[in-house]
Automatic annotation (TrEMBL):
Naturally occurring in which organism (per UniProt): Parasedimentitalea maritima
Classification via Pfam families: Cupin_2 (PF07883)
Name under which the protein is recorded: Cupin domain-containing protein
Source domain of life: Bacteria
Coiled-coil ranges per UniProt: none
Length: 361
């Protein structure tokens, strides 16, 4: 294989001033320097970068970001420096702590017929935003589709996230997960939760597969893992990632029990149990009884209409006749009621936290 390397070129006026800064302050290694009698070029490497400093180079000095697990112990704790050659140096956390924004509560209704744009995202997948204001950055809810089936050009990756749900509403998709055995097929009505930082890869999908993806917080980092091969040899179904277990919940054979709201039944996905209450996911259908007005006290309450029709009434609001593909968010303390549900109605309810109180009447 051909030996190939890459360098970042930055200028200098006097190389002798740069050498001690890049080697002693930044801890880089000098790999080469020339000419010997009056050096004008030096190459330094370290921290995953190779830097060529050349006297009189007609380029901007640029910015060098160094990410470290111990920024206070690097460069004597300085976070912003300017090298003798003018290059800006920024010292940051290698893995900044995840920030969970405070939820900005609002009543949101998103209708499929409003024709919100589909945006092409990662791996060629189409994304439709279900909560445009994202409740102040606390949640992202996406309707995702892959129009053309077949192999998906995905890589082994993971998400630095607090909670993530994948719920299939149409078609099927094959995914493989770290320490969870061979590939798994997600079909309509099935769901995964992807614990924080679990490695996974989307392998193949049917034509027009559609899933709902929920992520908390809204903005989170996706990283590619170039080393791990999936599936892994180990099978560890009880493994926890930051206190959460992987969940593969199937619609087939589910037990249906009375829902927290009269007039409906539900099946539990075990997600609240396996996330230790971080989030809960219920699938809801029409049942016996008369619908009632109700309030809840959970922080985030999101619902997606997977099938059928239902009317959402909100105190002081005009009723919304909802159908397949619509979504809504109910803030805590707001009185609402679900009425006129069709026999085939099916809703997906996602709440954070997963355990909360409902008050009827």
């Amino acid at each position: 294989m051909t030996d190939t390397i890459a360098e970042v070129l930055v200028p200098t006026d006097e190389l002798r001033n740069d050498i001690p800064f890049y080697t002693k302050v930044l801890g880089m290694r000098m790999d080469s320097i020339y000419p010997a009698d009056n050096p004008s070029v030096a190459v330094f490497s370290g921290h995953g970068v190779r830097l060529r400093i050349e006297k009189g180079a007609d380029v901007a000095p640029g910015t060098l970001r160094i990410l470290t697990e111990d920024p206070d112990g690097f460069a004597e704790g300085q976070r912003r420096l300017i090298a003798p050659n003018g290059t800006q140096i920024e010292i940051e956390e290698r893995h900044p702590p995840m920030v969970m924004p405070e939820t900005v509560h609002s009543f949101v209704v998103r209708r499929l017929k409003d024709q919100a744009p589909w945006v092409i995202g990662r791996a060629g997948m189409h994304y439709r935003d279900l909560v445009p204001d994202r409740l102040g950055g606390s949640i992202i809810a996406s309707h995702i589709r892959i129009p053309d089936g077949g192999p998906v050009p995905d890589m082994v990756h993971f998400h630095r996230v607090g909670f993530q749900l994948i719920f299939c509403i149409h078609g099927w998709v094959d995914v493989v997960y770290e320490d969870q055995g061979p590939k798994m097929r997600l079909t309509a009505g099935d769901c995964f939760i992807q614990p924080p930082e679990i490695r996974h890869r989307v392998l193949e999908a049917s034509d027009n597969v559609q899933v709902i993806e929920i992520g908390v917080p809204a903005e989170h980092v996706t990283e590619i893992d170039h080393e791990m091969m999936l599936p892994t040899e180990q099978l560890r179904p009880d493994r926890e990632w930051q206190g959460q277990r992987f969940v593969y919940n199937k619609a087939e054979g589910a037990d249906w029990v009375p829902f927290r709201l009269p007039g409906f039944v539900c099946r539990d996905t075990s997600i609240s149990e396996n996330t230790k209450g971080v989030a809960g996911v219920q699938v809801v259908r029409r049942g016996e009884g008369t619908p009632q007005w109700a309030t809840h006290d959970t922080d985030i309450h999101f619902t997606f209409v997977m099938d059928g029709t239902v009317t959402l009434e909100g105190e002081g609001r005009e009723p919304y006749q909802l159908e397949q593909g619509d979504a809504f968010v109910i803030p805590p303390g707001m009185k609402t009621r679900l009425t006129d549900a069709s026999d085939d109605v099916e809703l997906m309810e996602v709440t954070l936290p997963g355990v909360f109180n409902t008050t009827l009447g």
